[in-house]
From TrEMBL:
This is Gamma-butyrobetaine,2-oxoglutarate dioxygenase. Transmembrane segments: none annotated. GO terms for biological process: carnitine biosynthetic process. The keyword Lyase does not apply. Its cofactor is L-ascorbate; Fe(2+). Pfam families: GBBH-like_N, TauD.
Amino acid sequence: MTHVTPLANRRRLVIDHHDRTREFAALWLRERSPDDETRDPRTGQRLIEAAELPLDLSIETAEVHDGRLNMRFSDGHHTTFDLAALFDDPVSDPPQRLWDAASAPRPEVDFATALEEDTALSEMLEALHRHGFVIVSGVPIETDGMQPLIDRIGPLRRTNWGGIADVKSVADAYDLTMTQRGLEPHTDNPYRDPIPGYIWLHCLTNAAEGGDSTLADGFMAARLLRERDPASYDCLTRITPGFRYRDGDTHLESEGPLIELDSHGEPVRVRYSNRTERVPALPAEQLEAFYAARRAFYRLITGEELTLHLKLDPGQMLIMDNYRLLHGRSAFQLAGGVRHLRQGYVDRDSTASRRRVLRQRLANAQPHGEPA
C-alpha cells in the first residue's frame, strides 16, 4: 500500500511506499517534474528556470494510481512521477573496495580484448574504480602503445611535458622522476588545477636492477588514521598546504588538504607530494599539529601494512587512480639494463563517463530477466 500525506501548509509531502517512508519538498518535486514541459524529452535537461519558482509553492493534489504519483502544484502545473524511480535514486557508482597489503587485489585485463570488446573495457573500468588500479597486459611495446586504449575512453590529458612522456633516467633531469633515485609514495601533480585523475604507466623495458613500483591505498590510510589518531585525521582534513612546480618555462601552483572530504564527510581525494609541498607559515601551534599529523599519515603510507610491491614487465601497463592511490618506486641501477617507461594522464570526468555509459549500455543489452 502507498499513502501520501501533505504537511507544512502542503509545502511538503510524506510518502509511505512498500514499508519505506520519505519526505519531499514541494519545490524539489516541482523542479524535478519528469514531464516534457519541465524537461527536454531528448536531453533530460531542465527547460524551466528553477530559481524563478515561487518559494511558497504548495501541493494542491497528490494521488497514487498503479504505482504512479499524480500531482498538481499551486502554480497550476500537473505532472506524474513513477514511484519506483522516485524512491530508488540511481546510484552513479558502486562502492569502492579499500585494501591493505594483505588483502590487495590484482585486477588484470588484456589490452587487445579491452580494445575490441565493450564487456572487457567495462570490466577494466569497473575494476579501476573499485580497487583504484588495474594492470593491463599485452600492450604493444611501442612509444605510444597505450594510445589506442586511451582513445576508447577519453582524450589524453596534455601537460607542459606534452602527451605521453618518458619516465627514464636522463642527464640534466628536470624532475626527480627522470633520475635513478627511489621515489617516496606520492600523488602526481597536486600543483595542477584540475589534478590529473588517472595515471597510465606503460613499461617498454625494465631490465635495470631495482625500480620496483609501490602502491598504497590512500583511502585505507585515511580510514586507519581516523580510527587510530582522530586528531591527526581532523588536522589533515582542515589545514591546506600549497604545492608548486617551477622550471624555465612553467610555473604551476595549487593548494588543498592532504585528505579532502566530500559533502558526506568521507575522503574523496588524497594529496601527498613531499617534493612540491609548501606549507604556509601558520601559527606555531597549528604547524606543530600539522607536522605530527603528516608524520602519522606518512608512516601509514610507507609502512609494510599498506604497501603493495610489484614490478612491471615489458608490455604491461599500470593504470592508477591519482585521487586515491599513492605510488612510488625503489632506486634502480642501470648497470643491469635499461628501465624505460612511458606515462600519460586521462582525466576523471571522461573516465567516469565512459564507465557509466558502458554499464548502462551493457545492462540494456541483457535479455530480460538475466543479470548483467
